Amino acid sequence: MITAKAPGKLYIAGEYAVVENGYPAILVALNQFVTCTITEAKDEVGQIISRQYHDNSLQWRRRGDQMVVDKRDNPFSYILSAINVTEEFARSLNQRLGIYNIRIDSQLDSQSGKKYGLGSSAAVTVATVKALCEYYQLPVNKEMIFKLSSIAHFDVQGNGSLGDVAASVYGGWGAYRSFDPPGASAQPPHPRLPPPPFPPRGELHNPTTPAPAHPAPPHRGRGPNATTPPPAC
Question: What is the DSSP letter of 137?
Fold first, then answer.
């Protein structure tokens, strides 16, 4: 069994400004997490189940290297995108793809499924990428997890700064600027290829110190990300 988790986030300042390319924001990761657990599947059928969606589930199978999902309309778009992007990376490293079960547990939504604006979509994307990288034993660091998660998140959402993805990957307090997203999702996430156009400004500050748990934020954050640490003062 493999377990990985990723924290939610709150914007402290700049949550709307950061949507524009080059404008900064300050955000903080929380002590509330989305957890992804992977176990080996039985009978050649995998399952995805999530407490985020009232324990809704779906089954899937392999057809060659492709993942075949039983039903197209489902609430697991971020999870499925994270799987597709990470397994594309695994295939590029000649890894044999497996069949597994994924379970998602979230502390970022209410039991009724109501969202608090804590970045649950980004957190579930990052947690799934992290768990699958461990499952396939892929050679990744935080920067690579950020890139894979950003591509997966952007493929679903299609816009945004990806700041919540950065917070979920790096943790702690951080300042960053958004990048120019066109073409980001088309860039293959292979480490020997040029990376997506994220500005090389380092990682978020204080990555080991998450903020206290926050039951319900006073405002809703807008999500997406780019890894950009604040300039030295």
Answer: T
